[in-house]
C-alpha cells in the first residue's frame, strides 16, 4: 500500500533544491539576501548576498547586477557593474561582462568572458602548525675524558 502523505527527508549532505527566480523585466532596487539557489534573468540595483556555504547565484545572459556580489558559488553569464567576492567557485560563461574587481577561490572562465578590473585569487587559509621548540640533544656517545 502506498502512502502518498509520507514525506521523505532530504539527507543533510545534499545541496538545496530550492531555487528562486527573478524573471526578465523585473528590477529590484536595494540589496538582496538569499539562501539556496538564485537565478537572475532581471536586474538588481544593489548588493547580492548569500546566506549559507552552499548557496548558488546564477546570472543569465539577460541578467544584470549593479552592485556588489558576495556568494560562495556563482555562474555569471550576464552583466555585472561592481566587485565580486566568491568564497568557493566562480564560473564565468561566454557572455559574462564584468566591470569591477573579482575575488575568487576557484575559477573557470570560458572564451569570450570579459573582466574589466582586477582578478584576485584567494587562497584557502592553511592551518598553521607550530614546530616544537628545539631541544638540546645530548651526545649519545661521549668519549671518556682522558686524564
Report on the architecture of this protein.
With 147 residues, the chain is mostly beta strands. It has strands at 19-22, 27-29, 32-40, 43-45, 48-59, 64-66, 69-76, 79-81, 84-92, 97-99, 102-104, 106-109, 114-116, 119-121. Strands 1, 3, 5, 7, 9, 11, 12 and 14 form an 8-stranded parallel beta sheet that branches. A 6-stranded parallel beta sheet has the order 2-4-6-8-10-13, with no helix packed on it.
Keywords:
147 residues; single chain; 48% strand; 8-stranded parallel beta sheet; mainly beta; 6-stranded parallel beta sheet
Shape: elongated
Total helical segments = 0
Question: What summary fits the major beta sheet?
Answer: 8 strands, parallel
> Which structural class should the secondary elements be placed in?
mainly beta
Provide mean pLDDT, rounded: 84
Question: H/E element string?
Answer: EEEEEEEEEEEEEE
Radius of gyration: 25 Å
Beta-strand content estimate: over 45%
Number of strands: 14
Low-confidence stretches: 1-15
Cα distance, first to last residue? 99 Å
Portion of residues in helices? under 10%
Amino acid at each position: 500500500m502506498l502512502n502518498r502523505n509520507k514525506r521523505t527527508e532530504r539527507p543533510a549532505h545534499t545541496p538545496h533544491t530550492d531555487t528562486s527566480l527573478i524573471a526578465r523585466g523585473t528590477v529590484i532596487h536595494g540589496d538582496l539576501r538569499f539562501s539556496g539557489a538564485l537565478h537572475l534573468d532581471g536586474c538588481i540595483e544593489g548588493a547580492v548576498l548569500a546566506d549559507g556555504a552552499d548557496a548558488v547565484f546564477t546570472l543569465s545572459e539577460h541578467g544584470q547586477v549593479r552592485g556588489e556580489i558576495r556568494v560562495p558559488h556563482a555562474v555569471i553569464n550576464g552583466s555585472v557593474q561592481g566587485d565580486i567576492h566568491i568564497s568557493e567557485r566562480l564560473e564565468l560563461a561566454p557572455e559574462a561582462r564584468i566591470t569591477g574587481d573579482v575575488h575568487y577561490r576557484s575559477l573557470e572562465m570560458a572564451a569570450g568572458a570579459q573582466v574589466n578590473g582586477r582578478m584576485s585569487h584567494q587562497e584557502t587559509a592553511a592551518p598553521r602548525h607550530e614546530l616544537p621548540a628545539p631541544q638540546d640533544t645530548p651526545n649519545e656517545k661521549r668519549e671518556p675524558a682522558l686524564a
